[in-house]
Amino acid sequence: MSTIFLKTIKKRVDFLKVSKSGKKIFTKGFILQKYKRNMDLEKDTIRIGFTITKKIGGAVIRNKIKRRFRAIIREIFTKYLKKNYDYVIIANKKSLIMDYKELKSDVIKTVK
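RESULT FIELD:
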């Protein structure tokens, strides 16, 4: 069995590629976009990106939301996330109010 690596999406080009060609799934607290990459140099990797706009709140609030999503992804990535996929989570204000368990179950449902 090969090792699965988790990387973050940082370049705007990659975010746009996922947005244009990927599948969008809407939930109460966030939007998940997923895109299957071609077999390129980064095979056996899962890439994840987070988008939290300034409309949601200041830096402290945005970082709190990112920390919550990162913790959820770290818990579930070996079991539920698929290799050679790019995932982008676009958060909204409700993701801050939602219970951690509820947020985690929504992420699991949308990733499958």
